[in-house]
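Quick one before lunch.
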Amino acid sequence: MIRTRLATFAWSLAGGVALTSAPVGLVTGQGLRVSAETRSFITVDTPVVALVHVRVIDGKGSPAQDDQTVLIEHGIITAVGGSVAIPSGAQSLDLTGRSVFPGLVMLHEHLFYTMLGSATWFVLNQEPFSFPRLYLAGGATTIRTGGSVEPYTDLNLKAAIDSGRIPGPDIDITGPYLNGPGLPGIYQMHALRGAAAARKMVDYWAELGVTSFKAYTNLTRTELKAAIDATHAHGLKITGHLCSVTFREAARLGIDDLEHGLLVSTDFVPGKAPDQCPAGAQVDSSLLALDLASAPVNELIQELVSHKVAITSTLPVFETFAPHRPRLVEGALDAMSTDAQIRYFDSRSLIAESADSTNLVLLRKEMAFERAFAQAGGLLLAGSDPTGYGGVVAGFADQREIELLVEAGFTPLEAIQVATSNGARYLKRETRIGSITAGLLADLVVVRGDPTTNIRDIENVELVFKRGVGYDPARLIESVRGHVGVN
Ligand SMILES: [Zn+2]
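Model of the zinc ion complex:
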């Protein structure tokens, strides 16, 4: 408590958010302005950097290439290959035994963390201090948030990161959840009513700088259609975590992306009433009864693919609800406050003690669905979704998502592709980010080991480059120890 008050005091002394857009003093070797605070996490800062003797995983699915050189000049990748001339004056980093892959492009992130108030209360705690650092430390150099509960905070954080004041990833801010009434226990969401209200919300937040929208569980088809059209009129994209509207209906209305995949689809609920969100148990039983190899599932996948609707995989949040799964890694636990750790372990033991393995079966079904969707030509995206009951921690969970994609049957190269160039394609930024290609921004992750043979090596992050500036992940993580759940 004292720590929080002191931080608030220091923040107001510093001028609060008014400073987020003010120019900051120090200039990095790459010519970027950063604050002294941001500078303290930077370990590689020369205009020209050569990564030598490194294994390259390009993010496009090509086989990994050993003993390569990646040349970075002024924030841009200028050459990749086995024999690259290194300009004099370049800083050479010998990365023998290391692999490099593109900075992760993760599309279902949040700048908040769930603290259960009670069994029926959800409190979504904004994490403005810890989460931007943890995303960057985990290798996520670009994130799209998947819905906001403090959109003004999110927009100010983005501005603070973009100006170099605080360390963090590039962020596409998704506006506040577009939802109708009917979500008891969540008091941080506005409940809109009617198509005009949906349009008004989209217009308001798009004008303030939000670059993505998300429809939630209790909208009518008319409201969803109005939100889709308004979003597209701003040249932006809209995704959904739907329930009242089925996937097929949403695809036909023109939605761009669907979050979570099969496990939130109400397409298979017998006798589903239009515009009504069925109870969770009804959705679960419809999915348990579903044969993934059956024609209705195939037809739904075909419909999504033909309408170019992407699916965002969020396996880490589903994993927390399933029994007999590994617990959080030590690093993530260390980042959490004691209170957040206790709540996590309490919920986890309730799940372990109940004999109910429904969520384990559903997790496996979701994995199979994501494989089938990708194999049918669908654009699969990756995210961590730090929600649920907690226990999904920025950065760490993004690495976990990639490991779970491998468990789902993707090769490590494919899983990394989903979490890098697929995300860039969705954001229409594949000529700037998402792969290790000459001409693209030098957003890169260096890990010890070889994730193509042991995917868990993606956890061994040694260096994260954003625009050619190298950040120390250990220092970033250490700086937020005990903060997740608090701020
Ligand atoms: Zn979410």
